[in-house]
Amino acid sequence: MSIHHIVLKYRLHILFSVLGFTLLFLNHSNNNNNNVAISSSDKLLPTQTALRNVKEPIDTETDRAIFWHIPKSGGTTLKWYYGCLGLVIANEVSVSNGHDTDESLQVWEHANGFKYVNADTTGLNGIDRAKSLGLGESGLADVMFTMFPHQISELLFPSGSKYKGRFFTMIRHPIERSASMFYYRRVAKHENENVYLPHLKNIDLATYLKRGGGDRNFMVSLLVNKLGGQVLTVEDLNTAKDMLRTKFLVGLTSKFEESVERFDHYFGYDRNGISTECKESLYPGKNRYGIP
Length: 292
Fold this sequence. Notes:
With 292 residues, this protein is of the alpha/beta class. It is 39% helix and 11% strand. It comes from Helicotheca tamesis.
């Protein structure tokens, strides 16, 4: 039985994701970077004012690049790639080697040769610490990685600040992402107990979905800041679509190489002329788990 048939049979709760993001992808396929439709909605979330529109020219003095890391969608590969380019990164590695107790911001070099600023923006506690250290206005991070677009926008770029976040992300089809996450959680011993679920080895994907596993509008919930199982509405879906269309530079894992090229061109990341060398060293499948 194919994944699509499984999902239909057990009615995986991803209606918002599939419908909304399919429409979004169709929109992006008909627009280049300089012709992105701007939402006509006047019901913006407060954090949307902290973000640049993707159509606006980049201001290197005040704009801060933030990658919204959606699990199992290529983000781990991009962390390696940007490290290879020599960019200064803010992610979970940033506070390793004792740097979680630093009292001021600094850029340090890991044994792998990559550069990090000592603030972890991937989680909520780390974002709070990054705010207290002044990461948003410092300009020390070339790329910040996070799973929480609302919180990082609100805390690092408060109302009235001249500094603004500029988001980009890599999106995977929600059905494929849910299935990939299922197989990953079976074997990811290095992850915490909320992610590594070895008991999943005893069931198949169909059973997992029947029991309520899978992607329950994960992306929409984060974009509109409705966490903890709050009920989502069609208005929430439309708000999420507007945010992605106007505030995010979107790449697709199904077109990974083209998406990386798009990001590099948009942000001017290939400063040292080594992107080709770094791309040749990429292993896009090293953190993927096959879907039968």
